[in-house]
Design brief:
Elements: H1 2-8, H2 14-45, H3 51-58, H4 65-109, H5 117-143, H6 146-156, H7 166-191, H8 195-203, H9 208-223, H10 225-238, H11 250-261, H12 264-301, H13 310-323
C-alpha cells in the first residue's frame, strides 16, 4: 500500500509544505478580510446586528420571544409531520413500484412456453403494455417539478370531489414525485447486482418474486442507502413548498414573523440553522446505519474458525515427529 501510494503521489518536501502552509494562511486572511468588508460592514451599517432585530429570536427577556418561538416550534412540528408522512409513503410506494418494474421486466422476457398460444400471446402483450405504462408514469412524474405536482394535487382533487387538509395535499404531492425517484434508485440497485445471484436463486427453486424480495431488494437497500438518505433529505426540504397551498410549515411561519417584526435576515438564518441540524442528523444516521450494515456483512461473511478435533491434532503431531 505504501509503495502504491509513493508511486501515485509524491510526498511534499519541507519547502513545499512551507509554501502550502503560507498559502493557506494567506487565503484564510483574504477570506476573512473579504467577509469583513463585504458582509459584516454592510450589515453593521444597516443595523442588522441590533438587539431590536435579534432580541425576539435570542433574548428570552424580550416580550416577543415566547410567541416567536412558539410559532417557529409549531411550524417546525408541521414540517416534521409532513416530512415523516411523505418519507414513509414514498418508501412504501417507491419500493412497490421498483419491485413491480423488475417483475414486469422479467415477465416481458419470458415466452410463456408452458401455455397455449391463445393465452401466451395476450399475457406477453399485457406484460409489455404494463411495463411501458409504468415507465411512462415514472418518467413523467420524475420530470415534473415537485411544486407543480403539489399544485395540481391541491387544485385537481377538489374538482373530482376529493377534499383533504392542506397537510395531505402536500404529502400526496411529495409522495408522487419522490416515490418514483426512490423506485428508480432501488431498481438501478437491483439491476446492478451480479446476474448470477438471480440464476442461483432460480436454480434452487425460488420464484422471480421471491428472488426479488429475499435476495435483490435487501442488497439494493444496503447498496443505495446513501442515495436514499439524500432523497429523504430532499423530501424534508421540499416541505417548504407547502406555502403554495397555505400549509403552515416552518418557512410559511417565518414569513409571518418577518411580516410582523421586519427581520428577514435573522429569521431566515435561524430557520436555516434548524434545517441544517436536522439534515446533518439524517446524514450521520445514514453513516451509522451503513457502518452497522458493513460490520454485520463482514461478520456474517467470515467463517468461524473451529478448532481441529483432538484425533486429527494428535495424528498431525505424530506425522511431524515421524518426518523428523
Amino acid at each position: 500500500m505504501s509503495q502504491q501510494t509513493s508511486v501515485l503521489y509524491d510526498v511534499p518536501g519541507p519547502r513545499q509544505r512551507r509554501i502550502t502552509w503560507i498559502s493557506s494562511i494567506l487565503a484564510t486572511v483574504l477570506v476573512l478580510i473579504g467577509a469583513y468588508f463585504l458582509i459584516y460592514r454592510p450589515l453593521d451599517d444597516n443595523g442588522q446586528f441590533s438587539m431590536e432585530l435579534w432580541g425576539p429570536l435570542v433574548d428570552p427577556s424580550n416580550e416577543n420571544f415566547p410567541l416567536v418561538w412558539e410559532r417557529i416550534g409549531a411550524g417546525f412540528r408541521n414540517t416534521l409531520i409532513a416530512a415523516g408522512l411523505a418519507i414513509l409513503a414514498s418508501l412504501v410506494v417507491g419500493t412497490l413500484l421498483a419491485v413491480l418494474r423488475i417483475q414486469l421486466r422479467s415477465l416481458t422476457a419470458r415466452r410463456f412456453t408452458g401455455l397455449a398460444a391463445p393465452l401466451a400471446y395476450p399475457l406477453r402483450g399485457l406484460s409489455a403494455l404494463l411495463a411501458v405504462v409504468t415507465r411512462v408514469c415514472v418518467e413523467v412524474f420524475r420530470g415534473l417539478p415537485v411544486v407543480l405536482t403539489i399544485f395540481f394535487v391541491a387544485r385537481g382533487f377538489p374538482e373530482f370531489g376529493i377534499s383533504f387538509d392542506a397537510l395531505w395535499y402536500l404529502v400526496i404531492g411529495l409522495t408522487i414525485y419522490n416515490s418514483v425517484v426512490i423506485a428508480e434508485i432501488l431498481r438501478s440497485g437491483m439491476e446492478g447486482l451480479p446476474g448470477g445471484q438471480a440464476e442461483a436463486a432460480a436454480a434452487v427453486g425460488l420464484s422471480p418474486l421471491q428472488t426479488t424480495r429475499l435476495i435483490l431488494l435487501p442488497q439494493a437497500f444496503r447498496i443505495m442507502l446513501p442515495a436514499l438518505i439524500s432523497q429523504l433529505v430532499v423530501v424534508l426540504k421540499d416541505t417548504s413548498l407547502g406555502f403554495i397551498i397555505a400549509y403552515e410549515e416552518t418557512l410559511s411561519i417565518g414569513k409571518q414573523i418577518i411580516g410582523a417584526l421586519g427581520n428577514p435576515i435573522q429569521t431566515y438564518l435561524i430557520i436555516g440553522v434548524l434545517f441544517i441540524v436536522v439534515n446533518y442528523s439524517l446524514s450521520k444516521l445514514a453513516q451509522y446505519v451503513q457502518r452497522r450494515l458493513a460490520r454485520g456483512r463482514k461478520t456474517a461473511g467470515t467463517p468461524a474458525q473451529n478448532p481441529p478435533p483432538a484425533a486429527l491434532t494428535a495424528q498431525a503431531e505424530a506425522s511431524g515427529a515421524g518426518g523428523i
